Amino acid sequence: CGSIQHARDVFDKMPERDVVAWTVMIAGYAMHGHDEEAFRLFLQMRQENVKPDKVIFVSVLNACGNLAALEHGKQIH
Fold first, then answer.
1. Burial class (CB in 10 A: 0-12, 13-18, 19+), 18
2. Segment 17-36, tens digit of pLDDT
3. In sequence order, which residues have a C-beta less than 8 Å from that of residue 47 and are 6 or more positions away?
4. Which of 1, 51, 61, 74 is exposed most, by the fewest CB atoms within 10 A?
5. Nearest CA to 35 among 63, 55, 7?
6. Which of 5, 12, 48 is nearest to 28 (CA)?
């Protein structure tokens, strides 16, 4: 176990990020209650043209539900 901040530091320093790296980071934020950051990271991933997988969708939709963010959820759909 480590800190979410340490994981983000490693993530940010990665020269290339595949869908697995994005999935782990987004799911980590969502699991630890950092719902807004999970959603922001999802948007960044989409801007970088990374195709989300099912786990990312579950994590981000859960984060949107926790935020009661219907508009965020609609953006994902």
1. exposed
2. 999 999 999 999 988 888 88
3. none
4. 1
5. 63
6. 5
Asked whether 35 and 63 are in contact (CB, 8 A), the reply is yes
Six-digit token pair at 58?
A: 């579950």
Sign of CA dihedral 56, 57, 59, 63: positive
Q: How far apart, in whole angstroms, are the C-alpha atoms of residue 24 and residue 49?
A: 17
Instruction: Please report the sign of the dihedral spanned by the C-alpha atoms of residue 51, residue 53, residue 54, residue 60.
Output: negative
| The model scores a pTM over 0.70 | yes
